[in-house]
Design a protein that fits this description.
Mean pLDDT: 95
Helix content: 25-40%
Keywords: Magnesium, Metal-binding
Number of domains: 1
Distance between the termini: 38 Å
Cofactor: Mg(2+)
Protein name: Ribonuclease E inhibitor RraA/Dimethylmenaquinone methyltransferase
CATH architecture: 3-Layer(bba) Sandwich
Organism: Diplogelasinospora grovesii
Shape: elongated
Low-confidence stretches: none
GO molecular function: 4-hydroxy-4-methyl-2-oxoglutarate aldolase activity; metal ion binding; oxaloacetate decarboxylase activity
Radius of gyration: 19 Å
CATH class: Alpha Beta
Order of helices and strands: HHEEEHEHEEEEEEHH
Structural class: alpha/beta
CATH superfamily: Ribonuclease E inhibitor RraA/RraA-like
């Protein structure tokens, strides 16, 4: 990971996905960067203190009928250290597109976690590895019957009809109990001070609300 990414990742470790979204809403980025439908499955299911932060390494699966040739090597061998693997799968696919061997290799290469915009498998193996997985759902069958990888490190669309949002290679992905957020690379420097200001205000609000101050009064006092 280059020095710029390393510095940004360390800074983002201080904040939750909600903090990132709050800042992106202020910057008028759609949905505060939230990637709907992606939740934590490993090392635990929606439990624990797991957080992943890193630049996106994107992988694009498409149906076998797509005219583009299959990617010539296995994408998992080229995962950069410190990256979050983001695997894009066409919607409504019953087969899994990611498994335990992928995580074994990704972990060895220094990836911090994987986000699967589709199904994954080998859940217990993922948990035994203590490797973070965020995904839409689980499955059992491998992808080769239906799908192929055609590209890595290309822009990919989130596979949902709820949103129109793109994940670009190198965008920062942040995942925790609240879900997964994409922080566009070109907004990261603007977003950080907004996160800091919001967290400071919310910390003061929480302290005063817990001692009896009304929410509206606290909001006027610390958020305005």
């Amino acid at each position: 990971m280059n020095p710029e990414d390393d510095k940004m990742v360390k800074a983002l470790q201080e904040y939750t996905t909600c903090d990132v979204s709050d800042a992106l809403v202020k910057l008028k980025f759609p949905n505060g960067g939230f990637l709907s439908g992606l939740t934590m499955w490993s090392p635990e299911r929606q439990s624990g203190a797991t957080k992943i932060v890193g630049p996106a390494y994107t992988v694009q699966y498409v149906p076998l009928s797509d005219a583009r040739p299959k990617y010539s090597t296995h994408y998992i061998d080229d995962v950069p250290s410190g990256a979050v693997v983001f695997v894009s799968c066409p919607p409504k696919m019953p087969n899994a597109v990611y498994g335990g061997l992928m995580s074994t290799r990704a972990k060895y290469l220094g990836a911090v976690g994987s986000v699967i915009d589709g199904r994954f498998r080998d859940l217990q193996e993922q948990r035994d590895l203590e490797y973070p997985i965020f995904a839409r759902d689980i499955g059992t069958a491998p992808p080769a019957q239906l799908l192929k990888v055609v590209a890595v490190n290309v822009p990919v669309k989130l596979q949902t009809d709820e949103q129109d949002i793109t994940i670009n290679p190198g965008d920062y992905l942040v995942g925790d109990l609240n879900g997964v957020v994409v922080l566009p690379r070109d907004l990261a420097e603007q977003a950080l001070p907004l996160m800091k200001k919001q967290v400071q205000a919310d910390t003061q609000m929480a302290a005063h609300i817990s001692n009896g101050m009304g929410f509206s009064e606290a909001s006027r006092a610390f958020r305005s």
